Amino acid sequence: MTIAQVVADTSGFDHMSGFGWGMMGFGWIVGLVVVGVLVWAIVQATPRRVDAAPASATRSAETILADRFARGEIDADEYRRRLDALRS
What we know:
Number of domains: 2
Oligomer: single chain
Number of strands: 0
Helix content: 55-70%
Structural class: mainly alpha
Shape: rod-shaped
Strand content: under 5%
Number of helices: 5
Order of helices and strands: HHHHH
Largest sheet: none
Distance between the termini: 97 Å
């Protein structure tokens, strides 16, 4: 085929045998799928921040006070005094 024939498109089809627009659209779809998969993989590989407080921070002050009393860190008088202060 000569350059003049290719430019003139004498065969009735373009340079992709009539599939030019369809293949271009298919290429865009494949490209978007590849980009989507890459974004998904990056999101999955990135560690997530957990904003929830750790379990020890979510315990109430009364529970912590009771634990300290149970371990013997404070006596009964100290426990009652602090408990009354928390509840008032």
